[in-house]
Amino acid sequence: MTAPAPRLGVLRADGRGAALLARLAAAGLTLLDGPDPSADALLVLGPVDERALLAAAERATPVLLVGCEHAPGLWDLAGLVPGRTLPPHEVRVRPGPGAGQVADRLGGQELLLHDSWPLQEKVADDVEQLLTASSAFRDHPVATWRPATSVATLSLGSSTRTLDDPAFARLVFRMLRHVLGLRDAPAVRVGMLGYGAIGHEHAAAIGRTAGLELTAVCDPVEARVQAARSYAPSLRGSSSVEHLLADDEVDLVVVSTPPNTHAEQVLRALEAGKHVVVEKPFCLTVEQADRQIAAAQAAGRTLAVYQNRRWDADYLALVAAVRAGRVGEVFHLETFVGGYDHPCNFWHSDAEISGGAIYDWGSHYLDWILDLLPQPVSWVSATAHKRVWHDVTNADHTRVLLHFEDGVEAEFTASDLAAARKPKFYVLGTSGAIVGDWQQERLITRSPIGLVAEERFAVSDAPAALSLLGPDGARTLLAPVTPPLHPFHRELADALVSGWPMSVTPAGSRRTIAVMEAATASAADGGRPVAVPS
Is the dihedral of CA 400, 323, 506, 497 positive or negative? Predict the structure, then answer.
């Protein structure tokens, strides 16, 4: 029987933390208004009347104090004496000596936030220091737990910027689990169905993510199974799908087979009682997506699509600028990928297997568009050209136009006939614009006889150079945002062992499939607008 959701009493100053509370509710916590006696724990956001917490202290109800503004009596219960509060700055949050599970999957060995926080002049001997930050080359506690009084602190979280940060919300969730005595479920044992070009990426991420363990690989090529053993020497190898799905020591299956087989293999894995991660594209039709989502819900299993490029450095910077309002309201967005090159000689260029060019690169670029613009799409129109590369079946050049219900428009172009490239990103807003220009990265080395040798990488492998342009023509370069370490796999582990929801959802992946299926139908009909199913 599933344990009841923890009940969280919330006390907050000035109505702060709405986005934070919404994320906690999505994670399954039952939120109560004020110091409800039935609450399993209390969350305090900002300065509140300390008398409201005295009864909770007498009942030994765990309390988490967030922010740096609290009454002296509450700091005393926490076993802390705060001193000078530092001004807002970039804070590198690191595991402290008592971190335990709070710091699991932190995103590397530190988490970057922007906030002010107080230095602690005194820390009682019975206080556990869970997380720290550095000031003047000294580590100071920013998250603590005092079992004797059941009071925890997270002294970051004084600004709206921090309270609205999804990474901070996850940190609050981890702290609440700690004070409630909730332990993460055992590590999820992962089996990989197919170990192709992206197999090493999954294997490396699984091996470095607390809560995941690579235990099996199924691939018809024995050399690929052996390659996987470089990451997990004791894994079980097989060429039989049935053997993998019948393995009781596999909890989750990563489906990494060609796109036209995704739906079939996902449904088989769900029927076998496994959680499933499937490579992008999710599948080829909305009907297939709906069957997979329904099957996962019926089985009570997690289903996720590996949209790994949601965390590309340039896309993260673009999202941050747009959501901070730096271009005003976005009304036009274009994305482009390509050049003048022969397509790859693999199933990616076989429309029957891959779904076509719209599905191949569109699995990333249309996913970006739909993540950035969450409003409903009313219709799409698409065109496709087949003019030069007749040895493959994908179109040589495709363009997809999305028309949203509120009048916003977006465009995605993928081309193997573009002797002149368009920018990777072209965003127009009511008060500015963002342009992402392609960069050609080169590696300069010496040949065996000492001559200079130059290797050029595909432009799609490098982040775009982003520029923010104002109405007056002012241009500001936007720095790429460094992504956390193995973000998708960290989110996956969080969802499976602690219940923290993933940012990539089956519903969002279905939305991308709906657009790509409608665009493919439009291209086959000369560009006729096609409605996108809801």
Answer: positive
Asked if pLDDT for residue 465 goes beyond 50, the answer is yes
279 plus 295 within the same structural domain? yes
- 330 lies in the same domain as 443: yes
Q: How many domains does the chain have?
A: 3
96-118 burial, b for 16+ CB within 10 Å, e for fewer?
A: bebbebbbbbbbeebbebebbbb
pLDDT over threshold 50, residue 387? yes
Domain boundary among 246, 280, 306: 306
Can you give the residue range of the structural domain that contains 247? 188-306
Residue 477: name the closest of 425, 436, 431, 430 by CA. Answer: 436
**Mean pLDDT of the 511-519 span:** 98
Q: Enter the tokens of residue 248.
A: 């009781």
Q: Report the relative pairing of strands 188-193 and 212-218 from DSSP bridges.
A: parallel
Of 260, 290, 306, which one is at a domain's C-terminal end?
306
- Helices marked H in 272-312: 286-299
Q: What is the pLDDT of residue 1?
A: 41
Same domain assignment for residues 300 and 399: no
Same domain, 237 and 91: no
Give the pairing type, strands 465-469 and 397-404.
unpaired
Q: How many CA atoms lie within 13 A of 201 on its CB side?
A: 15
Same domain, 295 and 330: no
Exposure on the CB side of residue 338, measured as CA atoms within 13 A:
27
Instruction: Give the N- to C-terminal CA distance of the chain in Å, as an integer.
Output: 34
Both 155 and 294 in a single domain? no
Q: Which of 422, 347, 354, 338 is nearest to 388 (CA)?
A: 338
pLDDT tens per residue across span 182-216? 999 999 999 999 998 899 999 999 999 999 999 99
> CA–CA distance from 299 to each of 139, 267, 491, 505, 519 (Å)?
46, 11, 21, 17, 32
- Specify the DSSP element, H or E, that contains 401: strand 397-404
- Tens of pLDDT, residues 228-263: 999 999 999 999 999 999 999 999 999 999 999 999
